[in-house]
Structures are given as structure tokens and as C-alpha cells.
């Protein structure tokens, strides 16, 4: 049977505030020893009173505006009650029926078409402590009369407890794992442009839970949904959802029912496994947080925040097309990452070319970034802003190429070395002996040698096989170790063989 896939994503993003959500503890605890960023409030001591972090509220409103949400006037915080070892107070201060933002959307490109994906709500809450599960050493196991096993005991680090956490709940508008991936990439890019979160999934500052169900194509019935957790990369989300689509298909095809439950993604095995049956919302016994007053968001405040909104990805893409005459496709790729777009503009500025040459130079820089640079970044799995090649260094390399001091083949070699070592282009050209072979006599001699050594290819070319020239050019390039200009070499060979 044909099925339709229904996916809705819930994203939790840590906010880049200086202090935690309801107390004055520093939220910059990433490098701190465990349990050093704590106070009675985030430890959940009886009798303490929380206060609201204004910056966190502003960041949430900024996000709501960027996601085309309606910013609510009457908001409040609610208590979500449940017991878990990582929850210091035994409840979480979250938002239930009066979040900051409601009914927004973001757009993705699906099958060459723009598709709008709905956002149900954007709200603010607090993070929980971090648990680290450890296996007991033989000595510990002996001391406690237990057997050493996988998760013999757990350590609690309270530093993260009470850090501001923004939740963005998406509508079940997503129809495939690929659309889900695009939604996440777009959402993360927007948060990075706003500067409200690092959006780093591997470090857990951007986390995603996915709800997924299947229904027979053409029906509108809501089928039991499965919540998938524990995915810590975009790729993991994609793979986990692909796995669930296939698993649920099989369950329905064998005339059984998919059970509503929470499943965890096991990265190494590439499967989801059942964790628990899904709790209903009323299990949390939400009620208005008695220690915090309702928060009225004045229109002037919202207007002031709107004024401060930075340029967002789509606006920047359109500006790149206008200002640098890039194709919409290239501009989209460059602005898809704030770091990449910033790097591109830094290079353009560094090149300092007159207006008349701006678009040519911009195109050249874009080609390098979207070609060689992205390739090496992907291979070494790093972001462009942490690369050893700074914009100034890349522009210097392009200048050497433009001035004919190195060939384009040599430029690629130098670029790879720059990427590895961070050394300047000119220094590497000298140390690697890659300066362009500009001595016409030397080049003519090498061409002559190659022609003598390869009578077969020469014969082929003379017999009309045009592609034989490519082989001969390749041989000369090899003999010069890429120091010659391939086009010049091609012309030399043709002239020689025509004569
Ligand atoms: Zn605290």
C-alpha cells in the first residue's frame, strides 16, 4: 500500500545569554569543572525565588519574529511536574498555554519549489542537569558489593540546570526525511544569523525530537505517532526518520498497528528501539508558576526588538544576487551558513577591487569557496570560521593566480597546503617550487620531450582523435609538476603538431 509520511519536529536550542534562566549563575559553563556554576535557585532548594532573564525573553521574541510568529501580549510561565534525577527541583519552569510566539512558518526548497512549513509555537524554559552514566571499576564494584556493569552509577553535573532553553515546535507539515533535514538546517541558520544560539547539534546546544507517523495515501486520519529521540546530527535525524518510515510501513503492511511510543535512535546500529510508551500531556500536571508573575509583552518592546533584527538568510541571499551578481543558487549556498557568508564578504572586502571589477572578483571568490574550500571543509569536518586560511590569505593566493605567478593546478596544491598548515601562499609557492614556468624555452623543450616519448598519442591526434591532446597536456603538466598553464601547453602542442 502507498503511505503518506507525517513528520513534526520539536527543537530545543540553548540560548547564548550570560546568565541562567531564573538565577544569576553564569551560563558560560562549557569549560568549567562540574557543579561550579550553581546556587540555591538552580539547585532547587526550598524557599528560593526565581527571576526572569530579560535577555532570554528578548532572544525568544527575536526568534518568534524571525519565524513569522505572532508575538503574544499576555504570556506566563508554568510548572511542568515530573521526577527525574536530572531535574533538581522536581519540576521544570516552562510555558504551557501562553508561549511567547505562536503560528509562524519558515520556508524550504522541496523539488525545486518553495514550501512553507508551519511553526506551532516558540516558548522558553530551562535546561536540566547533565547525567553521565559510568560503569563501575572492579574496586568500586567490590566496595559496593555490586557487579561491574554498563551503567553501574551516574554522575550529576548541575552546571547546565537552569540554563535558558528555547523550544520551537513545528507543525506536522513535513512529508519526508529530506524535508525534515532541510527544516532543521534552515532553522539553525536562522538562529545563527540572529546570534541567539550556536546551533551546535554535536555539542547538544541544538537538539531535535521527531514525531513521525504514516497513513494510507489520500486519507486524513491521524495515526499513532512515534517520538524519536537521541539524534545528535542532521544526518542522524535523516537516518532515524528513514528507518522509522520503513519500520512503520512493515508494521502496517502486516496488518498490525503501530504503537504510540518513544523510541531512541542507536547511531552505531542504525536502528530505533522502544524506550517507553508516550506520556500524555496531563501527566505533567501543568499549573501557572506561582513564584513568577504573568509577563505582559508591550507592543513598544516588540517593535524595539523588531528594529534590532539582523539581516536574515533569505534577505542576504537576495542582496548577494543584487550586489555581486551571483546566481540565486550560489548565493543560496553561500548564505546557507552565516559563517560562510561572512567569510565571503570578508574576502570581497579584503580584495578591495573597484566597483567595475566587483562582480568578476566576487564570482571568483565564490567559486573557490563553493568548490575547493567546501570540499576540504567537508573532508576534515570543520566549519569555515575555524579554518586556518583567513580571508586575507585566500585573497593573496587569488592574486598570485591572477598575476600568472602560479598555474591554476599549482594554486590548488598551494591551497591544500595552506589549509593544512595555515602558511601564506607566497611562502608555500617558494618552498614547494611551484612558481609558474614562465621560461618559454624550458616549456618548449618539455613539450618536445613529451611528444617524442608518446608517438602513439601523437599518431592518434594526427589521425583526427581530438581527445589525444588531453593526454599529452596531462603528460606535460606532470613533467612540470603542475607549474605550467594547461591552456598554454595545449596551444603549444597543437601548434607543434600542426607544423
Ligand atoms: Zn543558579
* Approximate shape: elongated
The largest pleated sheet is described as: 9 strands, mixed
Mean pLDDT: 88
Structural class: alpha+beta
Structure notes:
Helix 9 packs across helix 11 (391-402) and helix 15 (455-462) runs antiparallel to helix 16. The protein is built from 17 helices and 16 strands. It is an alpha+beta fold. It has a 9-stranded mixed β-sheet with strand order 2-6-7-10-1-11-12-13-14. It has a 3-stranded antiparallel β-sheet with strand order 5-4-15, with no helix packed on it. A two-stranded antiparallel ribbon has the order 3-16. It has 3 domains: 3-307, no CATH class; 308-431, no CATH class; 440-498, Orthogonal Bundle (Arc Repressor Mutant, subunit A), CATH 1.10.10.410. The model has no long low-confidence stretch (mean pLDDT 88). The chain starts with a strand and ends with a helix. Zinc ion binds at residues 20, 23, 25, 38-39, 41-42, 162. Residues 20, 23, 25, 38-39, 41-42, 162 line the site of zinc ion (ZN).
Amino acid at each position: 500500500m502507498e503511505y503518506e509520511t507525517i513528520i513534526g519536529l520539536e527543537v530545543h536550542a540553548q540560548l547564548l545569554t550570560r546568565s541562567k534562566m531564573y538565577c544569576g549563575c553564569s551560563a558560560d559553563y562549557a569549560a568549567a569543572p562540574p557543579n561550579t556554576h550553581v546556587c540555591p535557585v538552580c539547585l532547587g532548594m526550598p524557599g528560593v525565588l526565581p527571576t526572569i532573564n530579560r535577555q532570554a525573553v528578548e532572544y525568544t521574541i527575536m526568534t518568534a519574529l524571525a519565524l513569522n510568529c505572532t508575538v503574544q501580549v499576555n504570556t506566563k510561565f508554568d510548572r511542568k511536574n515530573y521526577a527525574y534525577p536530572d531535574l533538581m527541583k522536581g519540576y521544570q519552569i516552562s510555558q504551557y498555554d501562553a508561549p511567547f510566539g505562536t503560528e509562524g512558518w519558515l520556508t524550504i526548497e522541496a523539488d525545486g519549489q518553495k514550501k512553507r512549513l508551519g511553526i506551532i509555537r516558540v516558548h522558553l524554559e530551562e535546561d536540566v542537569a547533565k547525567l553521565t552514566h559510568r560503569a563501575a571499576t572492579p574496586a568500586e564494584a567490590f566496595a559496593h558489593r555490586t557487579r561491574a556493569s554498563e551503567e553501574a552509577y551516574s554522575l550529576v553535573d548541575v552546571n547546565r540546570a537552569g540554563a535558558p532553553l528555547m523550544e520551537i515546535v513545528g507543525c506536522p507539515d513535513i512529508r519526508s526525511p529530506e524535508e525534515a533535514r532541510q527544516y532543521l538546517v534552515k532553522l539553525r541558520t536562522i538562529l545563527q544569523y540572529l546570534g541567539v544560539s550556536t546551533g551546535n547539534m554535536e555539542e547538544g546546544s541544538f537538539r531535535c525530537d521527531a514525531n513521525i507517523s504514516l497513513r494510507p495515501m489520500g486519507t486524513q486520519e491521524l495515526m499513532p505517532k512515534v517520538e524519536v529521540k537521541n539524534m545528535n546530527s542532521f544526518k542522524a535525524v535523516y537516518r532515524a526518520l528513514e528507518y522509522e518510515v520503513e519500520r512503520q510501513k512493515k508494521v502496517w503492511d502486516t496488518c498490525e498497528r503501530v504503537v504510540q511510543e518513544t523510541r531512541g535512535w542507536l547511531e552505531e546500529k542504525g536502528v530505533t528501539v522502544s524506550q517507553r510508551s508516550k506520556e500524555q500531556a496531563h501527566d505533567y500536571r501543568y499549573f501557572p508558576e506561582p513564584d513568577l508573575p504573568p509577563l505582559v509583552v508591550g507592543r513598544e518592546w516588540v517593535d524595539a526588538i523588531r528594529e534590532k533584527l539582523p539581516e536574515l538568510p533569505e534577505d542576504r541571499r537576495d542582496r548577494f544576487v543584487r550586489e555581486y551578481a551571483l546566481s540565486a543558487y550560489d548565493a543560496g549556498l553561500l548564505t546557507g551558513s552565516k559563517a560562510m557568508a561572512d567569510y565571503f564578504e570578508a574576502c570581497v572586502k579584503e580584495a578591495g577591487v573597484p566597483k567595475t571589477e566587483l562582480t568578476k572578483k566576487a564570482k571568483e571568490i565564490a567559486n573557490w569557496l563553493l568548490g575547493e574550500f567546501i570540499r576540504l571543509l567537508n573532508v576534515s569536518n570543520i566549519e569555515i570560521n575555524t579554518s586556518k586560511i583567513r580571508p586575507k590569505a585566500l585573497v593573496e593566493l587569488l592574486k598570485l593566480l591572477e598575476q600568472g605567478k602560479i598555474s591554476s593546478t599549482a594554486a590548488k596544491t598551494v591551497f591544500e597546503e595552506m589549509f593544512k598548515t595555515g602558511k601564506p601562499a607566497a611562502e608555500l609557492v617558494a618552498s614547494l617550487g611551484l612558481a609558474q614556468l614562465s621560461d618559454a624555452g624550458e616549456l618548449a623543450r618539455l613539450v618536445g620531450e613529451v611528444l617524442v616519448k608518446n608517438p602513439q598519442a601523437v599518431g592518434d591526434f594526427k589521425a583526427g582523435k581530438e581527445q589525444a591532446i588531453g593526454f599529452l597536456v596531462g603528460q606535460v603538466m606532470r613533467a612540470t609538476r603542475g607549474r605550467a598553464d594547461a591552456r598554454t601547453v595545449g596551444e603549444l602542442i597543437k601548434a607543434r603538431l600542426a607544423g
